Amino acid sequence: MAWIICGTVPDASFPLIEGYWRLDKGQLHAHGGSIPPLAVQRGTPALLATALLACETLGAEPPTALLVGDTGRGEGSRALYTHLAASLGASSPGGLTFHYLFPDLDGHNRVLASLEEMLPRPLLVADAGFMYAAKMSGYAATYDLFTPDAGELAFLADEKAPHPFYTRGFLLAIEEDIPDLVQRAYRHGNAARFLLIKGKCDCLAYDGRIIGTVSAPQVPAMEPIGGTGDLVTGLVTGLLASGMAMERACLTAARAARRIGLLANPTPATQVAELLPFLPQALRQGVSEAFDCVVS
Fold first, then answer.
1. Which of 189, 206, 231, 251 has the fewest CB atoms within 10 Å around its CB?
2. What is the mean pLDDT of residues 55-80?
3. What's the CA angle centered on 147, arms 254 and 245, to 5 degrees?
4. What beta strand segments (E) does 168-269 contain?
5. Residue 82, CA distances (Å) to 23, 85, 87, 106, 247 in order
6. Between 295 and 210, whose confidence is greater?
7. 241 or 26: which leads in pLDDT
8. Alpha-carbon distance 65 to 72, whole Å?
9. Is the previous residue joined to 220 through a cis bond, with omega within 30 degrees of 0?
């Protein structure tokens, strides 16, 4: 059962399109269509390219993608929500990864209602804008995985904030505050079953507590590169699509992303597409590693 990646392209003229894509020389090409290729820089194209390459490396079925153009006005995202809510009944995906989408609560809730009718229900991963919608809807706990950075975690932890713009003072929280923010997010029902918090030290949380961390190797040049968070979420998507258990998929993805940086020896000007050739080696190394992570 193919995995579905849902997200947007920052081009208002880009049409709503669903199907398979292939990665070739740093660009994404739609199968069987006349859609111009997409550059892999950041955002949903970076996530999709990473997931495609991860699945290829692992011998797993590649994901499909449901993409639409949206420059922040929300029209494209609303069209995607409507299409997805209507079409889910005819498909049986193993999971869905929701990425940059305008946080429209009505659209989110219609999609979630369609998902809840599916047996078995697919695994649900959310990052970026869709994670905001999931929290704002009050249904965050129905998701299997959120992949926030520290700032996004602060929004999840703030039970009074209706939108990230209104997150209170702990938006500037330092890494030592992560465990407290995790507990707060779970206490108020604003967290998915698992949280993979991306940062200087990547943390995996479950049921309000940190159950695993990845802090090495450290590659400081990766921090200012746009799209490295999308890289991690793409790796998790590929690993879950291959059938790997959630805890191991999250920690393997975090470690593999760091190994990609170590192998690529990037500068702050490096683009995500330049990192991807190092993904197969880094991922194979990560899959072979053992992690101390137990959910009880």
1. 189
2. 97
3. 60
4. 194-197, 202-206, 209-214
5. 28, 5, 9, 10, 32
6. 210
7. 241
8. 20
9. no
Q: Which of 161, 170, 151 is nearest to 190 (CA)?
A: 161
Amino acid letter, residue 72: G
- 28 φ, ψ to 5°? -100, 135
Structure tokens at 102: 């305008």
User: 202 pairs with which residues across the strands?
Assistant: 214
Contacts of 288 (CB under 8 A, 6+ apart): none
User: 275 Cβ partners below 8 Å, 6+ apart?
Assistant: 225, 231, 260, 261, 264, 266
Domains of the chain and any CATH numbers: 3-287 (3.40.1190.20)
Question: With contact defined as beta carbons under 8 Å apart, do 198 and 229 qualify?
Answer: yes
C-alpha angle 108-110-113 in degrees, rounded to nearest 5: 110
pLDDT-derived band at 92, boundaries 50, 70, 90? confident
Give me the numbers of helices (H) and strands (E) for the chain, helices first please. 10, 11
Distance CA 227, CA 99 (A): 12
For every residue of 77-115, which 3-state class applies, written as one string? HHHHHHHHHHHHHHCCCCEEEECCCCCCHHHHHHHHHHH
Q: Per-residue pLDDT for 294 more than 50? A: no
pLDDT at 89 over 90: no
